[in-house]
Amino acid sequence: MDSRITKEILKKVRQVEVRTNRLVNDSLAGNYQSVFKGSGMDFDEVREYVPGDDIRSIDWNVTARTGIPHIKKFTEERELTIMLLIDISGSGDFGSSESSKREMMAELGSVLAFSAVKNNDKVGLVLFTDFVELYIPPQKGKKHILRIIREILFFQPRGKETDLKLPLDFVNRVIKRKCVTFLISDFCLPGDFEKALGDLQPKLQISNRRHDLITVIVSDPREFHLPDVGWLNLEDAETGEQVALNTSDAAIRHQYSELAAKRHKSLHKTIRSAGIDILDLSTDAPYIPPLLNFFGSRKGRNG
Length: 303
Fold this sequence. Notes:
With 303 residues, the chain is α/β, with parallel strands linked by helices. The protein has two domains: 3-34 and 79-302, Rossmann fold (3-Layer(aba) Sandwich), CATH 3.40.50.410; 40-77, no CATH class. The protein has nine helices and ten strands. It has helices at residues 3-28, 31-35, 60-66, 101-118, 142-154, 165-174, 193-210, 250-273, 288-302; strands at 40-48, 70-77, 81-87, 122-128, 132-139, 180-185, 212-219, 231-235, 242-246, 277-282. Strands 5-4-3-6-7-10 form a six-stranded mixed sheet, with helices on both faces. A two-stranded antiparallel ribbon has the order 1-2. β6 (180-185), α7 (193-210) and β7 form a beta-alpha-beta unit. α7 packs parallel to α8. The protein is elongated and about 90 Å long. The relative contact order is 0.13.
C-alpha cells in the first residue's frame, strides 16, 4: 500500500480515536456500565450456611462430606461481549451534511467500542452488505479497538446491496454465549420494502431471544425531504436504478416525503413488534444526546 495512503488512514483513525475517546470520557462514563449487565452469575466460593440464607443455594455435596450445611456463593458476571454489526453497503456513502451515513456509523461504533474496552468488555465486529464481508472475533484491548475503527472506515466491500438477515444469522451461529448486539444500518432494503421487512422480522425475533439486540437506524435528512432545485436525477447507490424528479413540483416533494415517512414508520413498527430497542440517528445532528437519552431510558427500564 502507498505510504501516503497508509499515513492518511492512520491519521483518520487517530482523529476518530481522539474524538471518540474524549466523548466516552466526557459524556458516557458510568452510563454504559449501568445500562449493560453481565450475561449470568459466576461461582465465587462455598461457605457455611447461616440462618437467613436461601436454602436453594445449599451445596449438598459439600454438606454431606463435612456434615455441616454449606451454600454456594455467586457473584454477577460483569464481563460482556459487544458485537457491532455494521452495514457498509453502497447507500451508506451518502450524506448531505458534514458526515456520510457510513462515517456516522463508524464513529458510533468507535464510541461503543471504547466504552466497552474501558469496562473490560470484549468487542467483535461484523461488516456486511449482501455478504458477511468481514468478521473480527471479540477481544479486548486498545490495539484491537483501533483495528476495528480502521476496518469500519476503510474496508472495501465486494457487495453493494443490503441483507440484514445474513449478519444476524452469522452472529447467532458463531457467538455461543449471550452478547449485546448492535445492528447499525440505514435499513435501505432492496426490492419491495414491506416484503423485505416481513422477511426480516422473524430473524430479529430469533436474534433478540438469543442475544440482547439493539437496532441503530442512521438516516440523512435528504432521504425524507427533497430541496426545491428543479429537475434531479436520483440514483439508488445499491442497485444503480435511476429516476428523474422535478423537485420544483410541490406535489412530488410531498409524495416523496410521505413515502419516506411511511417506510420509516413501518420499519419502527416491525422492530418494536419484535421487542427490540431502537436508536434513531441522523447525519445532520450530533449523536451523543440521543445516545445518552437511549442509555437513560434503558437504565430506567432495567430498574
